[in-house]
Amino acid sequence: MAVTASSVIISAMVFFMVFQLQYEAIHSYTPVHYIVGDEDGWDLPITGASWSNGKKFYAGDVLEFKYERGTDVSVVDQEAFDNCAVNDKSIEYNDGDTNLTLAFGANYFICSRPLICQAGLKLAINATAPPPSV
Ligand SMILES: *[C@@H]1O[C@H](CO)[C@@H](O)[C@H](O)[C@H]1NC(C)=O
Ligand SMILES: *[C@@H]1O[C@H](CO)[C@@H](O)[C@H](O)[C@H]1NC(C)=O
Question: What start and end residues bound the annotated signal peptide (predicted)?
Fold first, then answer.
């Protein structure tokens, strides 16, 4: 009886320790801060595809877009991304320096000027859940 009770207590303790470790792993991810295009910024000849190629993005990571005044970065849906045409759901930022946090799932960004977007200034990222930390 005593053995059973203490093994129940130990099981409960182990359960809560594991739970706590998992909780901390999920909540201790430090988001990465990216500057899109690195030193070239959000501007041609950088293309979103060439810059994002090989990178792994997690929800909560921040993308900093740096661009000339007169251009913009627009947060758009897939339709606007595919067509290089903003629509009424698009949100345009044009103050030259914009930090945007990646949402879980698909994130689409384009330059609202169609020719520049078509030349490659568009970026699609699928952000996954943050990894457990080591
Ligand atoms: C974006 O975030 C970076 C790093 O935290 C910061 O240096 C920069 O000032 C921010 N830009 C804006 C427009 O908030
Ligand atoms: C993101 O995932 C969606 C749905 O699975 C897919 O249609 C889209 O092509 C993906 N985009 C990228 C950039 O991988």
Answer: 1-28
| Ligand 1 neighbour 33 (Cβ under 6 A) | yes
d(CA 108, CA 48): 10
CA-closest candidate to residue 111, choices 87, 86, 78: 86
Cα distance between residue 12 and residue 97, in whole Å? 50
* Residue with CA at minimum distance from ligand 2 atom 6: 106
Q: What pLDDT is stored for residue 69 in this prediction?
A: 82
Which domain does 1 fall in, by range? 1-29
Q: Residue 106 above 90 pLDDT?
A: yes
99 Cβ below 6 A of ligand 1:
yes
The one-letter amino acid code at 115 reads: L
**pLDDT for residue 117 is more than 60:** yes
Q: What is the pLDDT of residues 7-24, one digit of tens each?
A: 666 666 666 666 666 655
- pLDDT digit string (tens) for 83-95? 999 999 999 999 9
Query: 66 with 7, same domain?
Result: no
Q: Does the Cβ of 64 fall within 6 Å of ligand 1?
A: yes
